[in-house]
Amino acid sequence: MATLAEIRAKLQQQDTRSGSTSGAQGGDRAIYAHWNIPEGSTAKLRFLADGNEKNDFFWVERNMIRLPFQGVKGQMDSKPVMVQVPCVEMYNDGTACPILGEVRGWFKDPSLEDMGRKYWKKRGYIMQGFVRESPMNEDETPENPIRRFIISPQIFNVIKAALMDTEIEELPTDFDRGLDFLVTKTQKGGYADYSTSKWSRKESELLSAERTAIAEHGLFDLSEFLPKKPSETELKIIHQMFEASVDGQPYDPDLFGQYYKPAGLQVNASNQSAPAPAPVAATPEPTPAPAPVTATPESTPAPTTSGSTSDILNMIRQRKSAE
Q1: How many structural domains are present in the chain?
Q2: CA 267 to CA 290: how far, in whole Å?
Q3: Quick one: which of 28, 83, 130, 257 is 20 to 30 A from 12 by CA?
Q4: What is the pLDDT of residue 311?
């Protein structure tokens, strides 16, 4: 774990690199679903360092891409479904994301900017720590009180802004002089809003029970809760799913079910031609108010194009072949 000064320097470097261009699997009880707290309430969290000492931060970034489908092939009266797939650029090993490779070009055309935002990666951050006060009753909590948190960009911006505040002298994760984080849920424009969340102004030390839990259970290596990096075969499947989604086709469980599927969808294994990794279902996430995607420099969002999704994809491919 880096010092507070080193964290500030790294955050500054990241801001400089980005310039003005403005994991975890579902069903895990270790994840504290702060987005389910009642509106107008506050949860008090205490973040802890990453168990991976090579990570300078107390979080890892998770990038997912959402692929909407009109329904499920072969199902009558099927409702629209969403499939989440990992964006391989989050692994920082030089692997190119097949979806972003196409979508980046859409931002050059004002008529395609809205479509670009729709398929652009969605950032989230995985952290860990204690839930010191919770305004909701959980049906069941894990034996290990060290919980994991999936933090939205809206909340992360609040966390990051305070870290850059020179009046904070110690890391918020410090055992003796750390700070609690207060997640407050309100509503804005019909969406959950967390912009009033904040760090506590008063330092506090970890309780003896919290220190004992760390000694007994250890800290999570947060990188272990990122989605598994897709193989070459899975990357091809992801691109095929992307094309089917943009074309307005229904989700095909026979083609994609053994790789990635909507949350809750049961796939008939007898229809699969070969064994494959366990399907990845969507992880429940908070729903903050919509914000502009910072993919490339953008002006005021253009109105949605009136053409069908298949027309859009064909137009893009024709342009690429003509270049």
Answers
A1: 1
A2: 32
A3: 130
A4: 61
Please report the beta strands in 177-257, taking only residues with DSSP state E, as ranges in sequence order: 181-184, 186-188, 191-193, 198-199
Q: In 213-240, which positions are buried (b, 16+ CB within 10 angstroms) versus exposed (e)?
A: bbeeeebbebeebbbeebeeebbebbbe
Q: Which of 276, 240, 282 is nearest to 261 (CA)?
A: 282
CA distances for 304 relative to 116, 243, 292, 294, 301, angstroms: 11, 19, 14, 18, 9
Residues contacting residue 38 through CB under 8 Å, at least 6 positions apart: 135, 136, 185
Helical segments of 104-231, H only: 113-119, 153-163, 208-217
Distance in angstroms (rounded) separating the CA atoms of residues 194 and 40: 10
DSSP letter (8 states) at residue 106: G
Alpha-carbon torsion 90, 92, 96, 101, what sign? positive
Pairing relationship of beta strands 122-133 and 147-151 according to DSSP bridges = antiparallel
CA 87 and chain centroid, separation = 10
pTM of the complete model: 0.74
Would you tell me how many other CB atoms lie within 10 Å of the CB of residue 40?
A: 10
Which residues, given as ranges, of the chain have pLDDT below 50? 18-27, 271-279, 281-282, 287-309
Pair 219, 49: CB distance under 8 Å: yes
Range of the domain at 72: 4-322
